Structures are given as structure tokens and as C-alpha cells.
Amino acid sequence: MTDTAPFYETKTLSQMTKAEWESLCDGCGKCCIVLLQDPPEDGGRIWRTDVGCRLLDLKAVRCSDYANRHTRVPGCVKLTPENVGTLSWMPQTCAYRLIHEGRPLYDWHPLKTGDPDSTRKAGAGVHGTLVGEDEVDDEDLDDHIIE
Questions:
Q1: Which residues neighbour 68 within 8 Å (Cβ) at sequence distance 6 or greater?
Q2: Full-model pTM
Q3: What distance lies between CA 87 and its chain's CA centroid?
Q4: In this predicted model, what pLDDT tens digit does every residue of 111-144 receive, in sequence order?
Q5: Where are the alpha helices (DSSP H) in the chain?
Q6: b/e string for 91-127 if b means 16 or more Cβ within 10 A?
Q7: Which NCBIfam families does the record cross-reference, listed alphabetically (predicted)?
Q8: Which of 136, 125, 138 has the alpha carbon at shortest distance from 31?
Q9: Domain residue spans in the chain?
Q10: What does residue 16 show for φ and ψ, rounded to 5 degrees?
């Protein structure tokens, strides 16, 4: 009997089923942090903060209203096979980005380990490192820049 390669090694993002697509998320939460961007005339640099989106459940590191996130948070970006390659702010460890770039998933990814908690165990997510967006005044967001 021959081993069959997993879908994420044989399919492109656009070939994946909805379930396969959703399973790529490793639960790191890095794409759910508040980002700040300099104005274009100042270079448009994007800055990461230690502030989680108001819908991010900080304990579970999952969206608390995933189905309605785009309506409730207008700036929430819907990932698609077409836009993944254009989102420079996506984490370097993101499975969507890795597959788009033709690179393998990290060994700690839940699809490789079979453990849904492997991202946290590997220290590859934002678990325990964020404050909630509702706890920070907009004028204080600059104080939360982490890179």
C-alpha cells in the first residue's frame, strides 16, 4: 500500500475544498492583531501591535463570530486564493502564505501533528501575548507597536 501525500502538498489553494481551506488555519492568531499603517506619503509601512481584534477570543485564539466577522469588523480581510499573495502583512508562518509560495508547512502545524493545540505548544502563536482591542484607546495604539 502506498502512502498518499496530504492535500496541502498536492493541491493549490484554488483547488482545495472549503473544508481543506479552513483546515489550513493553524490557530496562531497573528492575522487577527490590530495593524497600524503609516500614510502612503510616509512610506505606508505596516506596524504590528500586541492588540487583538475585538472579535478575537484571547483565550481560545479564535474569532468569536467567524461567520459574521467581515460585517462586524469592516477591516477584516477575507483570505482568498487570489489575494493571499498580495497581503504582505500575512505572517511568515501562515499556511496559506506558505502554500501560495510553494513552501512546506512547519512541523508544528496541526495538519502535520494531528494535535489542534500544537501551534500553542510550539510557541508559534499569540497565545497569552495580547490585550483586547476594547481595552485600548485608539490614541494609545502607537504604544502597543511590537515591531
A1: none
A2: 0.89
A3: 11
A4: 999 999 999 999 999 999 999 999 999 999 999 9
A5: 7-10, 18-23, 69-72, 95-100, 110-113, 118-121
A6: bebbbbbbbbeeeebbebbbbbbeeeebbbebebbbb
A7: PRK05170.1-5, PRK05170.2-5
A8: 125
A9: 7-144
A10: -75, 150
